[in-house]
Design goal:
Blueprint lengths: L3 H15 L4 E6 L20 E7 L2 E6 L3 E6 L4 E7 L9 E7 L8 E7 L7 E6 H6 L4
Antiparallel strand pairs: 1-6, 2-3, 3-4, 4-8, 5-7, 6-7
Length: about 140
């Protein structure tokens, strides 16, 4: 798992590039990544990102309407900015989050990858502060 300074840097970079943008669509290549079933990951489609925060070693994507994506990268998980429309292809690609062009920003894709054969990275979709608090180590 990237250590706390790395997680903080991820949050700062994600904040700079994606705060205020709406998720156009999500492509989940590896269903093992999502460890929750309600709310559904597809509920994030069309939601505007209100910000990012660190919660222990987890990265929280705060979306409108109180929806949150809680990502634990583990040892080998990473986010990579890609050209717009890039699809998850390789064995390490787990999730592609696509963003449309808006407010002077070009369309792009954020790819979640994990370069470990164990595939321990996780994503929980939670609704509201009470459910988010349950993920606080």
């Amino acid at each position: 798992m990237p250590e706390l300074p790395d997680v903080t840097i991820y949050c700062e970079a994600l904040e700079r590039h994606y705060r205020g943008r709406s998720i156009e669509r999500l492509e989940l290549k590896s269903p093992f990544l999502v460890r929750s079933f309600e709310p559904d990951l597809s509920d994030a489609k069309g939601k505007r990102i209100q910000g990012f925060q660190r919660l222990g070693k987890r990265i929280v994507w705060k979306l409108e309407d109180g929806l949150c994506l809680v990502v634990h990268l583990m040892v080998a998980g990473r986010f990579h900015r890609k050209r717009a429309g890039t699809k998850p292809k390789g064995k390490n690609d787990l999730l592609a989050v696509h963003f449309a062009a808006n407010e002077g920003r070009a369309a792009d894709t954020l790819m979640l990858t994990e370069a470990s054969p164990q595939k321990r990275a996780s994503l929980h979709v939670v609704q509201g502060d009470a459910e988010l608090a349950a993920h606080n180590p």
